[in-house]
Amino acid sequence: MIKAIKGTRDILPPESALWSRVENTAREILALYGFAEIRTPVFESTELFARGVGEDTDIVSKEMYTFEDRDEQSLTLRPEGTAPAVRAYIEHQLQQESSIAKLYYLGPMFRRERPQKGRYRQFHQIGAEVLGSDNPAIEAEVLEMLQFFLKQIGIEDQTLLVNSIGCPVCRPRFLEELKRALAEKKVQLCLDCQRRSETNPLRVLDCKVESCQPVIDSLPKISEFLDEACRAHFDKFLGYLTSRQIPFTVVPRLVRGLDYYTRTTFEITSGVLGAQNTLIGGGRYDGLAEALGGPPTKGFGFALGLERILLVLQQSEKQVAAGPAQLFLAPLGEAAFEKATLLARDLRQQGIRCLLDFEARSLKSAMRLANKLQAQYVLILGETELQTGRYLLKRMTDGTQREVREVEIPAALRGVAVPVSQG
Ligand code: ATP
Ligand code: MG
Questions:
Q1: Residue 174 to residue 165: CA distance in whole angstroms
Q2: 17, 321 in Cβ contact below 8 A?
Q3: Which pLDDT belongs to residue 418?
Q4: Nearest to 322 by CA among 10, 2, 21, 4
Q5: From the CA of 73, how far away is ligand 1's center (Å)?
Q6: pTM attached to this predicted model
Q7: Residue 70 CA to its chain's centroid (Å)
Q8: Residues spanned by CATH 3.30.930.10 within the chain?
C-alpha cells in the first residue's frame, strides 16, 4: 500500500471543517485590518531563502527541500512566507501603489524536521506583512488583531512574549559582550551552541537544549544595550500594548538570529501544547528588502502555525465542526427519486443543507442512515406523497412528524435553519 510521506498528513473530515472555519475567520479579520491576500509560488530559487532567511539558520542549513531542476537551477520548496512576499513586493514594485502595503498569505510550508506532535515536514501557515512603516503603533495593531483572532476562534490559553533586539547601530556592542561571556562558558554549551557562539551568537539565546539554559540565563541582556532610538521604539510599543489592554511579558532571550531583523520580536505561546508550544512568531525586519536587492523598506510581520492552532482547538470542548445536514431526503421508488433530486436542488439554492439517499432503500434503512448522518429532519417521498404533493416531514430529535407541501418546507425547517455561510 502507498502511504503519505512521513511528516505529511491528510486533513480529513470532520477535522477539515474546523480548518475551514479557522481559515475563514482569519481571512475576515485580516480584511477588517486592511490586509490583502498575496499568493506566491510554492517553490522559489534557493538563493531567495539563503539570503532572505540566512545561511546560518536551522531552516537553511538543514531543513530545506532543495532540488536541482532539469536545467540545473537550484530550487527550494518554500520553508516560510516572508522572503517570497518581500520578493514579490520588490518584483512588482508594490511600494508605488501606496506608502504602506499590508499583505497576508496562507498555505503549505516545507521543512525537513524530525516529525513529532506539532512539528511536520509539510505544515501550514497564515502570515501577514506590513511593509513601509516603522511605527510601533502598527506592531501593536497587528498584535491586537492576533488577540482578536485567537479570541474569535476560541483560544483563551495563550501568552504574548515580547523583546527588542536592537538595530545594526546598537547590536554590535551587545554581540561583543555576548561573545565574551560565551567564550568563558563555552565548555558548558551544547555542540551546536559552541559553533553558534562564534558564527551567530544571538542564536544561542533561543537554543532549546536543557543544559544550555543556565548559561543562557546568566548572559548579558540586550535590553541593557539598546540605543536611545531603539529604547524609545520599544517603550512606545509596550505603551500601545498597555493602552489596548493586551497583557505581555518581556523575555530577553527572544531573538531572531539575523542582521536584518531589528527591534521588536514576539511570540505567542500556548500552555496546552507541550514542547512545541509556539503558536505564532513574528517581528520587525527592516533590513530584509535590501538584503534581497530591493529598495530600503521597513517591515513587520508574523506567521502562525495552523497545525498548532488546530491542536489547541481540538483539546478544548468548544470546537464545532460543520453542522450535520438539516434535511435528509428519503425517496421510495424510481419516480420519487427523480422528484427528490430536483427538490434537493431547489432547497439547496435556498440555503438548506440537504442529503439525498441515492441507494433507493427501504424506509427502514433510509431512517437508519439519516440517524447515522445526524440529519435534523427527514423528508419522506413515497408513491402517495408524490400524488398528493404533500410530503411527510419527520423531526429526528423527537420523532414528531407533520405533512408539508413543497413550498412549506423551508419555513418548516426555519427554527433550525442556519444560513450556509455560518456552516
Ligand atoms: P520552532 O521554534 O517551533 O521550530 P520556528 O521558530 O521554526 O518554530 P517560525 O519559523 O517562526 O517557527 O514559524 C512560525 C510558526 O509556524 C511557528 O510558531 C509554528 O507555529 C509554525 N511551525 C514552524 N515550524 C513548524 C513545523 N515543522 N510544523 C508545524 N508548525 C510549524
Ligand atoms: Mg523551527
A1: 10
A2: yes
A3: 41
A4: 21
A5: 28
A6: 0.89
A7: 33
A8: 15-170+226-315
294's grid cell = 530591493
Joined together, the cell numbers standing for residue 18 give 474546523
pLDDT of res. 415: 54
Report pLDDT for 40. 98
Q: Which atom of ligand 1 is nearest to the CA of 278?
A: 18
Q: Is the beta carbon of 267 within 6 A of some atom in ligand 1?
A: no
Distance CA 376, CA 399 (A): 10
Q: Assign domain 15-170+226-315 one CATH number from 3.30.70.920, 3.55.40.20, 3.30.930.10, 1.10.10.10.
A: 3.30.930.10
- Asked if residue 256 lies in contact with residue 287, where contact means CB atoms within 8 angstroms, the answer is no
Ligand 1 lined by 161 (C-beta under 6 Å): no
Size (the chain), residues: 423
CATH class of 326-422: alpha beta
Q: Name the stretches of the chain with pLDDT < 70.
A: 257, 259, 317-324, 360, 415-423
Residue whose entry in the numeric block shows the C-alpha cell 408524490: 386
3-state secondary structure of 245: coil
Q: Which of 250, 26, 286 is nearest to 152 (CA)?
A: 26
Q: What integer pLDDT is reported at residue 320 of this predicted model?
A: 52
Q: Whose CA is nearest to atom 16 of ligand 1?
A: 305
Contacts of 136 (CB under 8 A, 6+ apart): 233, 234, 236, 237, 240, 264
Q: Where in the chain is the domain with CATH 3.40.50.800?
A: 326-422
Task: Give pLDDT, residue 325.
Answer: 74
